[in-house]
Amino acid sequence: MPHTVKEKNALLARVRRIQGQAAALERALEQENECSAVLQQIAAIRGAVNGLMVQVLEGHLRDHLHAEDRTPEERREDLEQVVSVLRSYLK
Question: In the prediction, which pLDDT does 42 show?
């Protein structure tokens, strides 16, 4: 069972908080709020997305790369997938 299924409720709660933060950012822009308030909201969203990424990534590493039933080849493939995602994410 994928870790995202086991942690489904917690992950969905994080996503819903991010949606709320994005909606607040949209309102701030529509209401022409101060730049500092808009920047603060963007930073909050970025932090929330980073937290979500860490939670999913940690679960993936623990469930896939640390699993004893995985062959060395499967672990290498999983590692390459993680490296690829991280390269994309950190651009």
Answer: 97
Quick one: how far is CA 44 from the chain centroid?
Answer: 13
Task: Name the CA dihedral angle for 19, 12, 79, 69, rounded to a multiple of 10 degrees.
Answer: 180
* Residue type at 49 in one-letter notation: V
In contact, 18 and 49? CB cutoff 8 Å: yes
- Residue 57 CB contacts under 8 Å (≥ 6 apart), including other chains: 82, 85, 86
- C-alpha to C-alpha distance for 36 and 52, rounded to whole angstroms: 24
The C-alpha atoms of residue 7 and residue 2 are separated, in whole angstroms, by 9
Q: Is 6 helix (H, G, I), strand (E, B) or coil?
A: helix
Please state whether the predicted TM-score (pTM) of the whole model is above 0.70: yes
Q: Which two tokens stand for residue 59?
A: 């679960």
